[in-house]
């Protein structure tokens, strides 16, 4: 019934969809297996993509040929560039998506791909022969053969949903959990763990009093995620801001004795940076209000997502508490919030290619690795999809360094340090974030994707080259164009910058703090005319390049210094037990995790700098 | 305990040349066994760690090489954390070489320079800055050098750096909070308090940096320049201090045409004296070269002894002193020389009057030729140095440490500029990270291969 596949992807969430597309665009024949084809690419939690550090990841996924950025651009209803006051490395795109349109667009794009087949059924096991994954086993007993498998099970593996004292199996509200895979993997020698996450209640937008809430509109000139020609966002829908109060907190407290979080029913560890509302009240008792973002779920629905009100308290308590929020007095609830526990596999069991060390040609991506977030899942899916293709074709794995991309940071952190709570990306996790900006993701990564043969990169590479040429041209122009004191001084006075007493090269002005490229352009006709054809994005990139050249250069030096350690290879069969000067913990971690380089070894938790010195001396450096 | 190295190394651990005793050290998994094979007196294999045994060393033919004491250290309680045996032999170089040869022909390998300490480091006995301190300790000749090296070896410096790092990490986290959680409803630290925090850290680093001059002086000898007009008796003074005829002395002005250096230890402090050509206008090209070099030397000195011939007209002495151009950062001492040709009873009055005119700076009337009041000058020199160093103060004496501190403070200064100019926090955070990285280089928390190489090549054989 089935042809022989190169790659079977199990699960069609953000990780699964990207994995399928990546493998297919590399040229593999792919089967995407999902329990329900109507829930492909669901946004299980809030209907938004991007945010601080996450937005950068979406741009990177796009630059590597993934679809998350394109799908978001097609389905977004609001766009904001966050952290604009914080400098270019912190600029983070974030979009509010139409949940249904997002899923529909993904499905449409997947179906448009000739290399992707679909199968709707639960996968309950893997076919493993002699330590190599050979396919999957389905719920009704079908064996589907393949060269490799990517598992992206999300919260479905033995998912257990909690609402107050009620608990029931499920991967999402209203959807069955998946069983069998965890048990088989544990039997094969994998270590599994339990994590927890939660989601807030959804309410009826028609029942809210919007005038009592603060409006949060999208950007006046909305940007986009994809570096390709996706549609411009025109009609934006605002979000709103509401606040809890001591009154709300008092009501919530009446349910604490029935909270699965507090009575020990939930054992999995949840994320500290995304606590439930009951957690916030308990842990920050001195705060008498918490901010809530009231987000629309789409253009054609009145359903509303109450961001910041994640809860697993009994539904009646959730309902009563919601109605104490200003603007929510008459709120009707569509769905209660809930907590969900699920199985994950500590990612230290993975190679940096995301292949498991125990079973060859088996790859993990997304929440199964202990991460949280659509963006984190999507980028792992992309990398696992590429590397499944590479493994099937006996090619070197595609690995991004920490200095290449946030994706590199994420995977390096996961496989070397592991994670105790759901792992989310932060910009502070990236030591070279000055280089890892959203504006240069294409320059950083598209050439790499092109080099490994990702389909559709030729056209993109031409664009990248054009952009780089434009940046050089703009800089030249600023170096040779002079600006007049009379024209510039009124503006300089408004930002408190020293007035010019004679003509100046335009580039010197950009090097001043608080003076931007567009400010100078607006006060210099020659520049305005010459730069009229460049997009705002390119102008911003040029500004960053000129203004922060010193920082960027310094950061690059640091990267080069670090990369020396990255280039010292360690053999997989290296016997760490033979080096008694290594700490016992380092010996054990290095022996099991088998880092590829000394640089990687240095980031394994439990491996100290002195252990690294020992390794360096030992490998003769 | 199994150790990283499978081979056993041996070396003479005491300095080259004849001494009362000479120590040979064996370290490695086979050290005790090897020692026991040739040691007759007690069974070293059964000996407890840290015990001393009397016996005889005999070679393969049973010929006695020496009577000696063997000290047994058992892993990991030894310097290298390996099994170690030290033989205290008679200090004849013939005996020592014979013993070394015996062990070399029976399985031991000659230790490379610094290898004992390298093993100590690799086996986790000490961190990088401690290991470097060992090198200094070995080379220390004076009490203050020794105290400095000991302090570093005990990790006083490492602890201080660790504390600094902690403060910096605290600061960095405040900045990161703003970056990553700008959308959250949390309060951010204001710029002024951030600045205060950095300034506090920077002060500590600067103090450490400043201690480098002093720390380095202790290691190299505190540079003291002797300056003055020609023929006031500078060379005589130097010779009096050094107790030897190093400089050529004559009554012809300009005899000393070059810089002469020597060191002398006083009360556990090492002083490096620089005698210089008299500073005056001259047509003699060779002499003028010497004068140029004198000025250069003068600039490098921590202490400057300004020599004048004693005379009644003390304002002209003051004038003479002022013409020499001693900088404010240097400690000046005025020596009024040739009291042997002066009315002894007036000398004190001139001294007092000169000192009063110069803001109570030290003035000593003496005779270098007769060595009268030479002791006062020596005491003055010692007290200047002791005043600069308070006991228990952490002192930086290693150039690598100094450079790292210097880099760290440059980065932190950029942080302050950034905060002042309103540079965005991602760049401010970058400078903080760099500062952290530089501090990490000191304690070896960031280790690179070249770093290790250069450290270990600075070790002399046998620790």
Topology (elements, then pairings):
The complex is a heterodimer of chains A (621) and B (463).
Chain A lengths: L4 E6 L3 H13 L3 E5 L13 E3 L3 H10 L4 H8 E7 L9 E6 L1 H13 L4 E5 L2 E7 L2 E7 L4 E9 L8 E4 L2 E4 L11 H7 L5 E7 L2 E3 L9 E3 L22 E5 L2 H8 L23 H7 L7 E6 L6 E5 L7 H8 L10 E3 L2 E7 L17 E3 L9 H19 L13 H12 L23 H11 L5 H24 L1 E2 L1 H10 L9 E2 H5 L6 H6 L2 H6 L5 H12 L1 H18 L17 H10 L4 H5 L6 H10 L3
Helix pairs in contact in A: 1-9, 2-9, 2-11, 3-4, 6-8, 11-12, 12-17
Chain B lengths: L8 E4 L8 E7 L3 H8 E2 L10 E8 L5 E10 L10 E7 L2 H12 L4 E2 L4 H8 L5 H12 L3 H11 L2 H25 L10 H30 L1 E7 L5 H9 L17 E7 L2 E7 L9 H16 L2 E7 L4 H10 L7 E7 L6 H14 L5 E3 L8 H15 L10 H23 L3 H19 L5 H9 L6
Parallel strand pairs in B: 1-7, 8-10, 8-11, 11-12, 12-13
Antiparallel strand pairs in B: 1-2, 2-6, 3-4, 4-5, 5-6, 9-10
Helix pairs in contact in B: 4-5, 6-7, 6-14, 7-13, 10-11, 13-14
Quick structural gist:
The complex is a heterodimer of chains A (621) and B (463). With 621 residues, chain A is an alpha+beta fold.
Describe this structure in words.
The complex is a heterodimer of chains A (621) and B (463). Chain A is an alpha+beta fold and 621 residues long. Among the domains of chain A are: 202-337, Elongation Factor Tu (Ef-tu), domain 3 (Beta Barrel); 463-553, Arc Repressor Mutant, subunit A (Orthogonal Bundle); 567-618, GidA associated domain, C-terminal subdomain (DNA polymerase, domain 1). In chain A, a hairpin with a 2-residue loop joins strand 7 (123-129) and strand 8. Helix content of chain B is 48%, strand content 17%. Chain B has helices at 31-38, 93-104, 115-122, 128-139, 143-153, 156-180, 191-220, 234-242, 285-300, 314-323, 344-357, 374-388, 399-421, 425-443, 449-457, and strands at 9-12, 21-27, 39-40, 51-58, 64-73, 84-90, 109-110, 222-228, 260-266, 269-275, 303-309, 331-337, 363-365. A 7-stranded mixed sheet of chain B has the order 3-4-5-6-2-1-7. In chain B, strands 9-10-8-11-12-13 form a 6-stranded mixed sheet, with helices on both faces. At the A-B interface, helix 18 and helix 21 of A face helix 3, helix 6 and helix 14 of B.
């Amino acid at each position: 019934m089935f042809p022989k596949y190169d790659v079977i992807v199990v699960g069609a969430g953000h990780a699964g969809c990207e994995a399928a597309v990546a493998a297919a665009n590399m040229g593999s024949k792919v089967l995407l297996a999902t329990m329900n084809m109507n829930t492909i690419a669901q946004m299980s939690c809030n209907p938004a993509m991007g945010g601080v550090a996450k937005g950068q990841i979406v741009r990177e996924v796009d630059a590597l040929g993934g679809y998350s950025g394109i799908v978001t651009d097609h389905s977004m209803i609001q766009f904001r560039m966050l952290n604009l006051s914080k400098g270019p490395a912190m600029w983070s795109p974030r979009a509010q998506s139409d949940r249904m349109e997002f899923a529909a667009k993904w499905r449409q794009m997947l179906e448009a791909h000739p290399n992707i087949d679909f199968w709707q059924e639960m996968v309950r096991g893997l076919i493993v022969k002699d330590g190599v994954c050979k396919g999957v086993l389905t719920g009704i007993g079908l064996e589907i053969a393949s060269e490799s498998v990517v598992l992206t099970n999300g919260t479905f593996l033995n998912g257990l949903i909690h609402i107050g004292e009620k608990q029931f199996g499920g991967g999402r509200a209203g959807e069955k959990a998946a069983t069998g895979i965890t048990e088989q993997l544990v039997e094969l020698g994998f270590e599994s763990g339990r994590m927890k996450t939660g989601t807030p209640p959804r309410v009826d937008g028609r029942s809210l009093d919007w005038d009592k809430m603060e409006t949060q509109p999208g950007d006046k000139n909305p940007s986009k995620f994809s570096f390709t020609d996706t549609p411009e966002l025109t009609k934006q829908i605002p979000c709103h801001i509401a606040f809890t109060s001591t009154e709300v907190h008092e009501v919530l407290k009446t349910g604490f004795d029935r909270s699965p979080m507090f009575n020990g029913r939930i054992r999995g560890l949840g994320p500290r940076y995304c606590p439930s509302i009951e957690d916030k009240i308990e842990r920050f008792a001195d705060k008498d209000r918490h901010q809530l973002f009231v987000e629309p779920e789409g253009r054609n629905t009145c359903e509303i997502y109450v961001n910041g009100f994640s809860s697993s308290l009994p539904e009646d308590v959730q309902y009563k508490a919601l109605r104490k929020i200003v603007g929510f007095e008459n709120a009707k609830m569509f769905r209660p919030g809930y907590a969900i526990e699920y199985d994950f596999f500590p990612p230290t069991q993975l190679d940096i290619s995301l292949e498991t060390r125990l079973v060859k040609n088996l790859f993990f991506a997304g929440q199964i690795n202990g991460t949280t977030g659509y963006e984190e899942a999507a980028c792992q899916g992309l990398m696992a999809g590429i590397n499944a293709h590479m493994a099937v074709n006996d090619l070197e794995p595609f690995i991004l360094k920490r200095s290449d991309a946030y994706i590199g940071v994420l995977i390096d952190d996961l496989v070397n340090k592991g994670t105790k709570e759901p792992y989310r990306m932060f910009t502070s996790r990236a030591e070279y974030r000055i280089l890892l900006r959203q504006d240069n993701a294409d320059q950083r990564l598209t050439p790499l994707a092109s080099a490994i043969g990702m389909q559709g990169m030729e056209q993109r590479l031409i664009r990248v080259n054009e952009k780089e040429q434009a940046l050089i041209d703009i800089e030249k122009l600023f170096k040779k164009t002079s600006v007049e004191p009379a024209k510039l001084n009124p503006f300089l006075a408004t930002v408190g910058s020293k007035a010019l007493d004679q003509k100046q090269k335009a580039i010197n002005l950009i090097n001043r703090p608080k003076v931007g490229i567009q400010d100078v352009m607006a006060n210099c006709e020659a520049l305005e005319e010459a730069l009229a054809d460049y997009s705002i994005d390119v102008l911003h990139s040029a500004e960053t390049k000129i203004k922060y050249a010193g920082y960027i250069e310094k950061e690059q030096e640091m990267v080069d210094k670090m990369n020396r350690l990255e280039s010292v290879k360690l053999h997989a069969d290296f016997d760490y037990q033979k080096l008694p000067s290594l700490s016992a913990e380092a010996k054990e971690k290095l022996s099991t995790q088998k880092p590829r380089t000394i640089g990687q070894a240095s980031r394994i938790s439990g491996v100290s700098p002195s252990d690294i010195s020992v390794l360096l001396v030992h490998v003769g450096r | 305990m199994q150790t990283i190295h499978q081979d056993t190394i041996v070396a003479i651990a005491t300095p080259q040349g004849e001494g009362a005793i000479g120590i040979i050290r064996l370290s490695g998994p086979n050290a005790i066994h090897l020692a026991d094979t040739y040691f007759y007196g007690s069974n070293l294999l059964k000996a407890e760690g840290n015990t001393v045994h009397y016996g005889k060393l005999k070679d393969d033919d049973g010929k006695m090489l020496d009577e000696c004491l063997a000290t047994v250290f058992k892993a990991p309680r030894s310097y290298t954390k390996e099994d170690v045996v030290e033989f205290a032999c008679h200090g004849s170089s013939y005996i020592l070489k014979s013993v070394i040869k015996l062990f070399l022909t029976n399985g031991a390998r000659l230790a490379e320079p610094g290898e004992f300490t390298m093993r100590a480091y690799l086996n986790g006995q000490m961190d990088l800055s401690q290991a470097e301190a060992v090198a200094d300790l070995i080379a220390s000749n004076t009490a203050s050098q020794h105290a400095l090296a000991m302090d570093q070896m005990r990790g006083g410096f490492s602890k201080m750096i660790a504390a600094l790092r902690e403060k910096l990490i605290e600061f960095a986290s405040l900045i990161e909070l703003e970056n990553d959680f700008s959308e959250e409803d949390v309060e951010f630290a204001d710029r002024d308090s951030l600045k205060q925090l950095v300034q506090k850290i920077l002060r500590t680093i600067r103090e450490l940096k400043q201690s480098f001059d002093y720390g380095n002086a202790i290691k190299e000898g505190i540079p003291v320049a002797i300056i003055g007009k020609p023929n006031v008796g500078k060379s005589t003074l130097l010779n009096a201090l050094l107790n030897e005829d190093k400089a050529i002395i004559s009554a012809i002005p300009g005899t000393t045409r070059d810089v002469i250096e020597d060191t002398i230890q006083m009360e556990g402090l090492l002083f490096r004296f620089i005698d210089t050509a008299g500073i005056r206008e001259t047509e003699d090209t060779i002499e003028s070269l010497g004068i140029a070099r004198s000025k250069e030397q003068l600039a490098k000195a921590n202490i400057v002894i300004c020599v004048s011939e004693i005379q009644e007209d003390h304002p002209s002495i003051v004038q003479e002193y002022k013409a020499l151009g001693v900088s404010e950062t240097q400690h000046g001492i005025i020596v009024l020389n040739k009291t042997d040709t002066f009315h002894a009873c007036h000398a004190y009055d001139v001294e007092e009057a000169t000192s009063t005119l110069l803001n109570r700076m030290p003035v000593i009337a003496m005779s270098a030729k007769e060595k009268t009041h030479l002791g006062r000058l020596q005491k003055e020199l010692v007290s200047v140095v002791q005043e600069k160093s308070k006991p228990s103060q952490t002192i930086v004496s290693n150039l690598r440490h100094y450079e790292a501190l210097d880099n760290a403070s440059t980065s932190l200064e950029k942080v302050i500029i950034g905060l002042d100019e309103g540079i965005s926090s991602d760049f401010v955070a970058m400078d903080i990270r760099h500062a952290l990285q530089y501090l990490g280089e000191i304690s070896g928390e960031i280790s690179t291969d070249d770093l290790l190489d250069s450290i270990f090549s600075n070790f002399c054989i046998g620790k």
